[in-house]
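Lecture 7, part 2: worked example. A protein chain together with (S)-3-Hydroxyhexanoyl-CoA.
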Amino acid sequence: MNAEVLIPAVQTRREGAVLVVSIHNPPVNALGQAVRAGLLAAVEQADADAAVQAVLIVGEGKAFIAGADIREFGKPPVPPSLPEVCNRIEASNKIVVAAIHGAALGGGLEVAMSAHYRVALPAAKLGLPEVSLGLLPGAGGTQRAPRLMGVKAATELMLSGKHLSAKAGLAAGLVDKLVEGEDPQATGLAYANELLAAKAAVRRTRDIEITDKAMALADLQMLALDTAKKARGLFSPLKIIECVQAAVNLPFDEGLAKERALFTECLNSPQRAGLVHAFFAERETAKIPEAKAAAPRHFAKIAIIGGGTMGAGITVSALDAGLTVTMIERDADSIARGQANVEKVYNGLIAKGRMTEEAKAAIMARYTPSTSYDEIADVDLVIEAVFEDLEVKKAVFKELDRVCKPGAVLATNTSYLDIDAIADATSRPQDVIGLHFFSPANIMKLLEIVVPAKVAPDVVTTAFELAKKMKKVPVRAGVCDGFIGNRILAVYKQAADYIMEDGASPYEIDEAVRGFGYPMGPFQVTDLAGGDIGWATRKRRAATRDPKARYVEVADRICENGWFGQKTGRGFYLYPQGARVGQADPEVLAIVDKERAKKGVTPRQFSADEIMRRYMAAMVNEGAKVVEEGIALRPLDVDVTFLSGYGFPRFRGGPMKYADMVGLDKVLADINEFAKEDALFWKPAALLQKLVAEGKNFDSLNKAV
Ligand code: 3H9
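Predicted complex, written out as structure tokens:
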């Protein structure tokens, strides 16, 4: 019989005078209801047992406790609440020790701070990252952390969401002792017995006085000013500061009550829903159908074809992932430039004091420049990043087919070309896949993994393994013009052009988009990327454009003047003397006016709200088409693409989550209204219509694959 043995979420056992309370809730010991109830019962048990003099709280597996169970947010609360559990731990009349290994995050650190003593192993990670989920520490963290580590340091920890190492935690006062070792139970037991031998007393964090309140309040005021500037519409950061102000000004229990009230406000905010969706969606995109069937191929040595901005960025990513890289360029000058592009990145880090010359030398020892394809005969994986032209890429793949060993993975970094056609240029289409990196490739998190028709499943899993090694966020995409991201971008960019020609200035549109939470608007992005890039694509596609489709020529007029954006000092904006922030340009407005007049358009006013309704409706409608056609596996894959690669405001969860929150019926009604002006462009996606008819949302399609 193979009956599954159910292990309780919290187990207790006596070791002499110590009650060992161990938490078993894989994978990360999140504080679900069973864990909370178990912890509460264990403390009650310890307090009632005269033979117990100390309580040791430890986590089983890889973490101490990674926080509240994020999956419970938004559902009806089930007692006991975490604040109640933490207060009960702190109130215990036996000394309570937390032995921390792995993650002690959010509620996990709050449990530890409620204990009377804390010992950490070197690999411990301590933090209060609730802000990344639109929350604040809601189980006493905002009241206890300032008492343990000081008001300023605690507030900075909560505002940043950063994880501290055990060493940093010790220095900050969050832990009392750091012990080399790997066994939290043995370490914790030894520490508890040491405390008992020294007759250590119960020591409650709530009893620590916050001294120098005037200084603390002044620090908080500075942090509030800074946060108001940086938080860009985020709700919870300023609430965190309010909680800490309460910790300084109010008795402990009143501070806790304030924290509870503000935590509830955060919990009920749409930002929390958006950020929690983003958290799970980013983990979900790595789960793909191929994973069940095919283990990744081995790879250690790779080749990058092309040393331009993209090739160099990918090279840095690969080197940072510990891989051995050969870069191929066509001649001595080009390969020298390629190497210089790679070194520039590391030299930048050295200049900022974030890397040593020795570390750079160790990394560069894994890098080989070459102008001969024959030198990559033994590599396991190749990423081509040459000029974006189908014939050029096909020629490269013919060469790769000639030299590479059987079973080598051959990837192209095209951003919109037909990868099936590239694969068919080789005799081994089963080994060919798309890896669409985003610029700068060593920084941007998104990696679209584009899956052509004939690719073998283990090539797909290899690509996902590479993404993991490179610490990228992978999204599986199908082959079409622009894949997920650039295909949808082309459509909402078109919507922005229509809004401009119909009456809003590019500056008003950018402002509305920033107001929504983006760091930049679409015309600023064009200026940053270089207007010539889009212009070249438009010229190439002119012959195949639907003659009935509306086409806005403003950007072409701007490019005809040689105004390609920041690099030429002007584009949609003016950049006097190399300024990085653009100024409105009356000459651009005159061009827009002239184009309107040419088309007989009488300009009208657009509110920021209407601009965003159109911009988002275009994005969501194309997103629905991308899901409907199977280009994206699920709506959440579209969300992650935009969160990780296109600056979509994380607190809104991604375009599809945003549409769910607005209501799909409202989005569809907008599209139908706009279609009265231009039925060709505003053609509602069949999937969107179907979901509205069935009363469902996009999230209903976010099933595990
Ligand atoms: C909080 O505590 C609020 C309180 O202040 C107040 C309450 C009143 N819950 O990331 P990984 C899952 S807010 C549920 O791939 P890693 C995750 O989805 C919370 N599930 O592993 C994944 O599932 P699957 C504050 C969670 O080793 C699996 O665990 N805490 C939770 O790369 C493995 O995760 C945080 O914000 C959770 N809390 O990284 C910490 N955490 O296998 C959030 C993880 O089905 N967590 N899962 O895809 C993390 O930062 C990382 O997961 C961690 C491990 C560093 C722990």
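The CA atoms of residues 446 and 473 lie 5 Å apart. The pocket of (S)-3-Hydroxyhexanoyl-CoA is lined by residues 27-28, 30, 63, 66-71, 82, 103, 105-107, 110, 129-130, 133, 135, 137-139, 141, 280, 283 (CB under 6 Å). Keep this in mind for problem set question 3.
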